[in-house]
Structure formats: structure tokens, C-alpha cells
Amino acid sequence: MQRESMEFDVVIVGAGPAGLAAACRLMQQAAAAGLTLSVCVVEKGAEVGAHILSGALLEPRALDELFPDWRQRGAPVTTAVSEERLYMLTSEQGGIELPPALVPTPLHNNGNYIISLGNLCRWLAAQAEQLGVAIFPGFAARSPLYDDQGAVCGILTGDMGLAADGSPKPGHVPGMELRARYTLFAEGCRGHIGKELIARFGLDQGRDPQHYALGIKELWRAASHRHQPGLILHGTGWPLAEAQGGFFLYHGDEDLLTVGLIVDLDYSNPYLDPFEEFQRLKQHPLLAHHLFEGKRLAFGARTLAKGGLNSLPQMTMPGALLLGCNAGTLNGAKLKGIHTAMKSGMLAADTLVQSLAGGDTGARRLTDFDATFKDSWLHRELYQSRNFTPALHKFGPWLGGAFNYLNHNWLGGRLPLTLHDRTPDHATLFPAAECRKIHYPRPDGQLSFNRLSSVYLANTGHIEDQPCHLQLGDPELPIRDNLPRFDEPAQRYCPAGVYEIIDTDGSPRFQINAANCVHCKACDIKDPAQNIRWTPPEGGSGPNYPNM
């Protein structure tokens, strides 16, 4: 097939904080070095920010470095944290507030801001365009391109206008080759190209398996008399009796608040349903007090990489770098990944400008990045927090919390040992016959809701007549293996109702409602047989998150 091709110095996949910070820094450093660069960013969402979802609390350290005058530039970072509380919920009615002195220091948020990450990314994109970066929203990167030596040399974007059977429809537009001297992959957590690159170049050799959590979030318009701008609540415990994780509730500006639940995907009971756990959570009096009389505006879900430094793959390969949450730079101790993702992109930009100024073609492994990364505050921060998530996984919230308190508050993260969690999340499920069924209450339509009404608020949309982007390695496996052994957990771990078991003439059938997909990637991670492969649908498909 004849495909059009475009040449750039640098192609960046993903208009999230890592990709956009890299783009901005590239142009800043190139101008300082007297270089003229062509840089483009491709983004699978219909617009920048459409697929961005985070809590979100911003530690402004990386933003301060990238744009010291961000306040004068009008960055959407205005609501500083004014009060924070941390709770251990003990039952559907009870709980205790932990004294600040007993909270591990990474969880303190003095100096941080409550933001919409989607809006911050829209602002970063505007800064990048002013610096001369070309941004192409609505184009999904389908696969990497390799040169004759096996080095990465760009990407191929997905075809537009294919029918469900893969045949071209009228108006079909073949994907385009975007060739580059360097390619930066900043797809976000569990990027499909990142998976390919890690496997192809063995980037995870000697590392612990990556560990993930599913974050489910809602945006609410709070009743004005209940709104307290700058107030943040964090907590753990109930309702997660059979999983690790925790909740958040942030009061932003303009009477907006965000509420969410993060569920670690190493849980063992296949009957656990993260979406339903979130609905139960909102009924707790602690959260219901803030939500009562409010209006739910938006819903979304996304996985996050929590393995930290122990699970961080080699980020360099011939001609390319793996950045941000695509690599797993989130700091699990702080529950923050925006500043770390941005810093990884900025370090990549510094390395690339030095290589380009020296005449390098991009074909060799970018070993300079490894040294730059290890000499940065990003690496020091991740090193100090390397034991946080493994401690919680091994010892639970009480003993693990005590371990983390001692390690961070008394030893500054310098405990001379490293804990490991070497069991991948998909391998932790017990057979359904060994687990208790969990019965969830019906939604009340005021604080708790069903899946379909929630997906509606994610503004998700996919052209129905296109190839299914959720691919099964073995189409028979869900009914043959997963259903009798695990009661097919896909119908519960997916927060959007994508997977169903349908009775057809007395026989079960595995149905995929691909149009519901919010691109969270939980299925790609948690399927016990690793039989589900998430691939990008046609560019522009998926959720369209406002202010998330």
C-alpha cells in the first residue's frame, strides 16, 4: 500500500504531560543552542486533553523549571491546597482521622495545587504551538517504524475509514508514516507501543513486573454551602476489604470537586468489582457530606503504573525513549505522577538537543539519557520511594503504613534494603470457587449510579463500523477457561461494561461492547490469561473528558 510520509527531527507520541513537556523543552533548548528543529506531537484523542484523566494534585516543581513564569502565562493552576486530611475508614459508617504527624511525609501536600490535568495539557499544548511544535490530535499511533539496523525511526498512524471486517470504506485514508531522527513515546500507562518496545528490546530485564491500579473518578458540581476550595481528603480502608487502594476527594475552584477510588490490580478475589466498590464508597458519611445536594458532571477511569523504580524499564533504545507513565515514573508514595512525567520529558529533550547539536543521527542507544536521569531529582525521588508500594502489598495498610512512616519520616527514604513484589497483577486471582461472592447494593441515583449512565458522562464515542480494537488472542478462552475458573472477571474489572456474558439459547457467549470503552487498559492488564490485547481504535475515538 502506498502511504504518505513526513520527516521530522523528533516525533512525540502522546499529548500528555510527559510528551508536551518534552516538546516545549526541545524548542526552548534548541533556540538556546541555535538549532532549528521540526517537532510534532500525535495524540489519539479528538483534542488535546480528551483522554487525560488524573486526580489531580500538582506538585509544581517541574512546571517551575519548564516555565518559571507560568502564573503570568495564565496556566490553569490556581487552587492551592489549604487543608488536608487523611482517614482510615473502618466500616460503612466509621473511620478515624490520622494525625498529620503520623502521615508519611510524601503524602503531605503543602505547596501543591488542585488542578484539571486535561486543562493543564491544553495549556501546555498552546505553549508548545507558540514555540513552533506541530500538534496533530485525532491521530492514533498504530505501530513503530524500524530502520534496516532495527532502530526506531518513527511511527505509522492508524488507517481512517476501515469497516468492521477491515475492508476500506468510501473515503478510506491510509495511515501515514511519520519518520524521525528520534521518537519519544509518552502514551501514558500501559501504552500499546510501549509494550511492543519493552518486549522487542528487552527493556524490562532484571526489573520487577510493573504493578498497576485502576483509578475511577467523577467530577461534581458541589452545593455552594458545602464547597471548601483547597480542601483535600485522602483515605484507605473500607470498602476495600479484599484489595489495596484508597480514595480521594478534592475541592477545586468554581464549586467543582473531584472524587475517586484507586484499586490496586493485584487483588485476588475475581468477584471484586472496582466500579461497584466506588459506588459504595460514596455512601460513606465522610464523602456523602461533601457530595450531598451536588450534581455529577463527568465520569472516567484510567489505570496508573505504581511499580516505581523497582519496575521502571530501561527507558532508552536505539532511536527512541520511553517516557512518563508509559515507562512508569509515577511516585507511588506521593500518589503523584504529573511532575515526574514532565521531568522525564524535559530530561529527554535535554539529551536529544545535545545529541542533535553533536550531529548524532539517532541510530545509537541514547546512553547519555541514562546518566542524566540517574543524576536528576527525579531518580532520587523515585529511589527514596522505591519501597512504598511493595511494603503495602506485602504487609497491608496498617503494617505497611507503619513501615512507610518509619522509612520516610525517620530515615528520609534511606532504609538500606529494597522490597520486591515479583508477582504480576494478572497472576494473583484465586479460583472463584475459593472466594466469596460480593453482593453490591443497587444504585440510588443520587450518590451511586450504574455503569451505563456513567459511561454516558464519559462522552465516549466510537464509530460502530470499525475493526474491534479489543482483540482476543483466543476467542474461545473466555468461555472455555476464564468462565469456569474465575467466573470471567472481565465483566467486573472493566468499569465501563465493555465485557458481558450473554446467554444465547442456553449457552454462554462472551460479548465485547467496544463502543463503551473508556481506554482505561484494565483488561489488557488484569485478564488472567493475558488474552485481551488493547489496540488503538480509529483516531479521535474514545472518551472526551471535560475538565478531568
Give the topology.
Elements: E1 5-13, H1 17-33, E2 39-43, E3 57-58, H2 61-66, E4 79-80, E5 83-89, E6 95-97, E7 113-114, H3 117-130, E8 134-137, E9 141-146, E10 152-157, E11 160-162, E12 168-173, E13 177-185, H4 192-201, E14 212-221, E15 231-237, E16 245-251, E17 256-264, H5 274-281, H6 285-291, E18 295-305, E19 316-317, E20 320-322, H7 324-327, H8 338-357, H9 367-374, H10 377-384, H11 388-410, H12 451-457, E21 470-472, H13 477-486, H14 490-493, E22 499-504, E23 507-512, H15 522-526, E24 532-534
Helix pairs in contact: 1-3, 1-8, 8-9
Give an account of the 3D structure.
With 548 residues, this protein is α+β, with helices and mostly antiparallel strands. It has 15 helices and 24 strands. Helix content is 28%, strand content 24%. The strands form six sheets. Strands 1, 2, 8, 9, 10, 13, 19 and 20 form an eight-stranded mixed sheet that branches. The longest helix has 23 residues, at 388-410.
